[in-house]
């Protein structure tokens, strides 16, 4: 999945669709994602 789609999911709050992003996302993790 392209990185920009991952960022779109992050912004949309759809973290739980992705196993990698199933954990709570800290500001540090958002910067790395």
The major β-sheet equals:
none
Q: Number of DSSP strands?
A: 0
Give me the secondary-structure category: mainly alpha
Point out poorly predicted stretches. Answer: none
What distance lies between the first and last C-alpha atoms, to the nearest angstrom? 13 Å
| Mean pLDDT, all residues | 61
Helix content: 40-55%
How do the SSEs run, as a string of H and E? HH
- Our Rg estimate from Cα atoms comes to 9 Å
Number of helices: 2
Tally of structural domains: 1
Label the overall shape. Answer: globular
Q: Roughly what fraction of the amino acids lie in strands?
A: under 5%
List the helices and strands and how they pair.
Blueprint: H1 3-12, H2 27-32
Report on this structure:
The chain has 33 residues and is an all-alpha fold. Helix content is 48%, strand content 0%. The protein contains two helices and no strands. The longest helix has 10 residues, at 3-12. The mean pLDDT is 61.
For the structure shown, list the relevant keywords.
2 helices; 33 residues; mainly alpha
Task: Summarize the model shown.
The protein is mostly helical and 33 residues long.
């Amino acid at each position: 999945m392209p990185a920009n789609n991952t960022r779109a999911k992050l912004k949309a709050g759809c973290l739980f669709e992705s196993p990698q992003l199933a954990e709570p996302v800290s500001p540090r993790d958002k910067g790395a994602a």
